[in-house]
Design goal:
The protein has a single domain (9-204, 231-358), classed as Aldolase class I (TIM Barrel). The two termini are 23 Å apart. The protein contains 13 helices and 18 strands. Strands 1, 2, 3, 4, 5, 6, 7, 10, 11, 12 and 13 form an 11-stranded mixed β-sheet that branches. Helix content is 28%, strand content 21%. By secondary structure, the protein is an alpha/beta fold. Bound molecules: iron/sulfur cluster. Iron/sulfur cluster binds at residues 269, 360-361, 371-372, 375-377, 387-389.
Length: 432
């Protein structure tokens, strides 16, 4: 159980997403990658690119089951797919926002321009010290800011494209989280979102307590790529613990919206903090729950979709947004007042920026898998919508695994069938 208590979910806005109506969908274009990141949940398989026909088919499956705003084009690294420009164009032509999730290694200026022409609306760059990245091995999170800046600059000079940075949080990198938030403040014109994904393994450290089954078959979770850490790592860092770290440096840091867990409703699986920030003067104020509600609801009212990535040109209108949103949201009101009452700062641009903390799968003591309720990162496997973070279980074992306490396994026995689990509808782990 998480010993950190702030924030209390009841003070936050529960993001309105569901399995059928969500902000994004997760398209895996390839399982090939040009890096081997420590925390990766997918096997790196050379030349495993999906054909354009397969990708078109997966988009059809998404469209049949789900309304969504953006498509996270992921992998592997999607930029190693030889037809990535066509894939981006295909997503854009169907009216969704293409977002490329990449380590950035293959992103040249020319590639950025081609993707922009094809309609890319965002990049989510995964950059952290667990990547064995050529030329950057041994660098810490602070030293990697130089690379983050280079990538953000490249995108900014290409066009009005959203930029997010992902960083996997290990015990050793947890102390750097406030530094990364501070770095994001200083680059608020080029960086719209910072994402911290807390490191997990398939068994989450419960290998001595639980046996794992798929249907009636006992399986060995050690076969999965994300059961093999390069080092001993803590597997229980929570989103609240990250908030506590950030608040040591920024005491007012205040999340406003969340997704709960499917089994532990008190767990904050996606935790969103939004604020108005000026590059020179830092954070003006943090948005409250009303602002998140307003942003999602107005967008849904206007477009029929829940909002995914917003363009930098919109988010840089921080002054107007805080003025209007301040009518409803006390946090935005404070931000506007702080800007207005300091005339010498009237000409400083004000941007909206967000920090998202993601706490992926937790294996509970009794073996239940606590997933993100209304998971945005749902992908397609054999024409079904499934959790992208657990694809390896489907590929290796033919279904999602479930743990059972070792001493009770004969009494209770596994209760899910392979078919049900593969459909993501196991009794114990409803999806979405
Ligand atoms: S449940 Fe969904 S959102 Fe949560 S970590 Fe897994 S894939 Fe990502």
């Amino acid at each position: 159980m998480d010993s950190y208590t702030y924030p209390d979910a009841r003070s936050l806005y529960r993001l309105p997403w569901s399995k059928a109506d969500n902000s994004i969908a997760w398209l895996e274009a390839t399982s090939s990658c040009n890096l081997y990141c420590e925390g990766c949940y997918r096997a790196n398989i050379k030349d495993s690119h999906k054909s354009l026909e397969e990708i078109a088919h997966e988009l059809d499956v998404f469209a049949k089951h789900r309304v969504f705003d953006g498509v996270s084009i992921a992998g592997g690294d999607p930029l190693v797919h030889p037809q990535i420009v066509d894939i981006v164009a295909m997503v854009a032509e169907r009216g969704w926002k293409p977002i490329v999730n990449t380590n950035g290694l293959a992103l040249s200026d020319e590639m950025a321009r081609e993707l922009h022409k094809a309609g890319v609306k965002g990049f989510t760059f995964h950059v952290d010290s667990g990547q064995r990245r050529p030329g950057w091995t041994g660098k810490n999170e602070l030293e990697l800011n130089e690379l983050r800046e280079e990538l953000a600059e490249r995108v900014a000079r290409t066009g009005d494209i959203s930029v997010a940075f992902n960083s996997t949080v290990y015990e050793r990198t947890l102390p750097y989280t406030p530094d990364l938030v501070e770095w994001a403040h200083r680059h608020a014109d080029k960086v719209q979102v910072m994402v911290f994904i807390l490191y997990r393994q398939a068994e989450c450290g419960r290998q001595d307590e639980l046996d794992y089954y798929v249907g009636g078959r006992k399986i060995d979770m050690n076969e999965l790529v994300y059961s093999r850490p390069a080092h001993d790592q803590r597997l229980d860092i929570s989103s609240r613990e990250v908030v506590a770290r950030i608040r040591e440096r920024f005491p007012d840091f205040a999340p406003s919206a969340y997704l709960n867990g499917t089994e532990d409703f008190d767990s904050l699986k996606w935790l969103l903090t939004t604020y108005a920030v000026s590059k020179k003067n830092g954070v003006l104020a943090y948005a409250g729950r009303k602002f998140s509600e307003l942003a999602q609801t107005l967008y849904h009212f206007r477009t029929g979709r829940w909002l995914a990535y917003e363009a930098p040109s919109t988010l840089k209108k921080g002054r107007s947004i805080t003025a209007v949103a301040g009518l409803f949201d006390p946090g935005m009101r404070r931000a506007f007042a702080r800007w207005f009452l300091r005339p010498w700062r009237w000409f400083d641009p004000v941007h909206l920026q967000s920090v998202m903390i993601i706490q992926p799968i937790d294996v509970l003591e009794d073996g239940r898998m606590n997933m993100c309720d209304s998971c945005p990162d749902i992908t397609v496997y054999e024409d079904e919508l499934v959790w992208s973070c657990r694809l390896e279980e489907l590929i290796h074992f033919g279904g999602f695994a479930r743990g059972f306490p070792k001493q009770q396994k004969d009494a209770t026995g596994p209760i899910i069938t392979v078919k049900k689990a593969a459909q993501g509808r196991a009794d114990s782990s409803p999806l979405g």
